[in-house]
Amino acid sequence: MANAFLFFLLLIFSSNIIFENIHACNQSERSSLLFLALTLSSPLLNWTSADCCNWQGITCNRDGWVTHLQLPSKGLKLKGGIFPSSSLANLTHLTHLNLSHNSLSGSLDQTEFFLSLNDLEILDLSYNLLFGVLPSSLPSSHIRTVDLSSNRLHGAVSSSFFQQAWNLTSFNVSNNTFSGPIPSSICRPSSSSLRHLDFSLNNFNGSISSGLGKCSKLQVFRAGHNYLSGSLPEDMFNSTTLEEISLPLNSLNGAMTDGIANLANLTTLDLSHNQLSGVLPLHLGKLSKLKHILLDFNYLEGSLPLSLMNCTNLVELRMGTNNLGGDISMLNFSKLSQLSKLDLRKNNFFGIWPRSIYSCKFLKAIQVSYNNLEVQIQPEILSLKSLSQLSLGWNKGLTNVTGAMKILMGCKRLVLLSLGSGFSGEEMPNGVEMEDFNGFQNLRHLDLSSCNLSGIIPSWLSKLKMLQVLDLSRNRITGSIPSWLGTLPMLQTLLMDFNQLSGEFPRELCTLPMLVSGQAAGQLGRFYLELPIYYQPSADAITKQYNYLFFVPVIYLSHNCLNGNMPIEIGQLQLLQELDLSANNFSGNIPDQISNLKYMERLDLSMNHLSGKIPASFTGLNFLSSFNVSYNNLGGPIPSGTQLQSFNASAFEGNQLCGAPLPNKCQTTEGANAPDMSTQDADTKEHQIPWFFVSVALGFITGFWGVCGPLVLMRKWRYAYFHFLDNVQDRFHVTIAKCMASMRRKFV
């Protein structure tokens, strides 16, 4: 019995030794890991225990060899900026290396690092600061995943890099600065396992070479945001396993062929922002699994194929900004029950807007502006409970603005509403018909521009507490600007130019919270939209795309009949970037307080009746890129030593100004940079003591009472004074009598 007990203890002791030997890490690899830790500047890794297999991010196999080194998102930084290739190269049994989402720098062009990791299967160094070119080849024939995205790597991706990529399934080098062509030999029989290729957000150029069809298991091919040209290779359509083709923002051209119908598994087709032409493939509808079609910003023509309505899984259909046309009423949208986003803007579609669109109950965004559609707001639109973005403007047939507003009030989630150029000649909805207004509680962007609407600014707008952008420009709106506009808590963009507004610039407008307080504006954040919106700062500027509700803090009131002085309170709008008050009847001096608007980029005060000088304090407006004060009554020198001299002379013409950039020089240099004294002189004169009149009054009082006072108050002086006057009078009479007698003797 005792022998059996001793045997049992020996067995337990032996098993403990074996267990410890299984998990004890190799000492040479422990030293390499410690050396790696020493190369890091922050943060410190808690690698202190004897067994490195228990360290954070470390996994060992049963023999104690390190197989996994995974330290993603740890804020790791290197002391010398040199990638620790030597210490990693000693981890010869490593299969998984994940150091992504850190701040590691250095070059990967280290042969010792790549050639020694013969068992590596997963390599993820994405989202770091690595630079340099890629090594000549991948480190291991066993490697399955390579993710080097979001670094600073450059150079070409050589075909030899994939010579040993027999088991490669995913390759991602997106968001770097790689150049040259996409390697043509990446797909070959030896790489039949390849499923995911991502070359997007680089500088790749040239055409897409044939060969993708050899990747028999390829599911995702991304190469957007590059400089690729040429047409789509026909053999790409042989990769029948493809689920996503994403090549936006390139220069691809040519037509899409019917070969695309072979891609029966395709769910995403993104060829937007290219130069594709021709008609859409007739059998595009065979791709029944398609969920996302993005072909906007091309030169496609013809009509939408009727087969497209067979793509019953379609969630997003974007065909905007092409040359497409045809009768929209021929399409039956009722089959597209999953449709969420529809963008057909800027095409040549015509016909009556189909009511079948209201069968798409999941629709969140409709954008069909700039066509020739006959559109009416129907009550059926209320069935689209998730509708948040509606753009129907710049079509024809849109009438009954009051009825449309009353219907659309029921769209509780509506965020953006654009009905520009509709309801021509009607009156702005107001009064009794809008008394029960209680809608648009989530509306942030309202566009009723270019509608030729008459009437006054409606009071129901004061209830839109979420409104950020209000565009009522190019109408026939009359009356004054209501003071309650200044109480809208979220308003940042106000466009009411080209109307018939009168009265003064309301001081209440200078208290808009989002233009006054940076803290309030900072808390607003971005509101992301279902479909992007497009903003073009000027006619010759590049159109920019925004996936969120974009706005520029501006006030446009040009081409109206506004008068009076510009309020000095305008200096409170510190976040304002653009102010256009041109072509009005403003008078008086330009408020010096405008210089408080430090973010001002565009200021137009032309064609008014402003007088005085250009305030010298405008030298502090450092961000001005557009400035115009032409055709006013301004005088004096243009403040020098500022960017005002960089503007064209036409921005100052029609005044009595002098100095650069005008050809006429000022007579004296004195006062060129002096502050505008016209306003100061006026204020000084108002408060100056009238010393002239004071001295006259004091002189009169002193003289009168100095002479008359003693005569009234002292009798002796009065008797002596009158006696003196009598003597003077008697002498005067005697003198006159003698003169007369002398004259008579001469003439007798």
What is the residue-mean pLDDT, rounded to a whole number?
Answer: 86
Please name the fourth-level CATH homologous superfamily of the domain at 469-658. Answer: Ribonuclease Inhibitor
Distance from N terminus to C terminus (CA atoms, Å) equals 192 Å
**Main sheet characteristics:** 23 strands, mixed
CATH topology grouping of the domain at 469-658: Leucine-rich repeat, LRR (right-handed beta-alpha superhelix)
Write up what this structure looks like:
The protein is an alpha/beta fold. The protein has a domain at 469-658: Leucine-rich repeat, LRR (right-handed beta-alpha superhelix), CATH 3.80.10. The protein is 17% helix and 22% strand. The strands form 6 sheets. The protein has a 23-stranded mixed beta sheet, with no helix packed on it. A 12-stranded parallel beta sheet has the order 6-8-10-12-14-16-18-20-22-24-26-28, with no helix packed on it. Strand 2 (58-60) and strand 3 form a beta hairpin. The radius of gyration is 42 Å and the shape is elongated. Residues 28-61 form the Leucine-rich repeat-containing N-terminal plant-type domain. It is found in: Cell membrane. GO terms for molecular function: protein serine/threonine kinase activity.
Q: Secondary-structure blueprint of this entry?
A:
Blueprint: H1 2-23, H2 27-38, E1 40-42, E2 58-60, E3 66-70, E4 77-78, H3 85-89, E5 96-98, E6 105-107, H4 111-116, E7 122-124, E8 129-132, E9 145-147, E10 152-155, E11 170-172, E12 177-180, E13 196-198, E14 203-207, E15 220-222, E16 227-230, E17 244-246, E18 251-254, E19 268-270, E20 275-279, E21 292-294, E22 299-303, E23 316-318, E24 323-327, E25 341-343, E26 348-352, E27 365-367, E28 372-374, E29 389-391, H5 401-408, E30 416-418, E31 445-447, E32 454-455, E33 469-471, E34 476-477, E35 493-495, E36 502-503, H6 513-516, H7 518-522, E37 528-535, E38 544-548, E39 554-556, E40 561-565, E41 578-580, E42 585-589, E43 602-604, E44 609-612, E45 626-628, E46 633-637, E47 656-658, H8 677-687, H9 691-713, H10 715-747
Parallel strand pairs: 3-5, 5-7, 6-8, 7-9, 8-10, 9-11, 10-12, 11-13, 12-14, 13-15, 14-16, 15-17, 16-18, 17-19, 18-20, 19-21, 20-22, 21-23, 22-24, 23-25, 24-26, 25-27, 26-28, 27-29, 29-30, 30-31, 31-33, 32-34, 33-35, 35-39, 36-40, 39-41, 40-42, 41-43, 42-44, 43-45, 44-46, 46-47
Antiparallel strand pairs: 1-4, 2-3, 37-38
Keywords: Cell membrane, Glycoprotein, Kinase, Leucine-rich repeat, Membrane, Receptor, Repeat, Serine/threonine-protein kinase, Signal, Transferase, Transmembrane, Transmembrane helix
InterPro entries: Leu-rich_rpt, Leu-rich_rpt_typical-subtyp, LRR_dom_sf, LRR_N_plant-typ
Transmembrane segments: 689-713
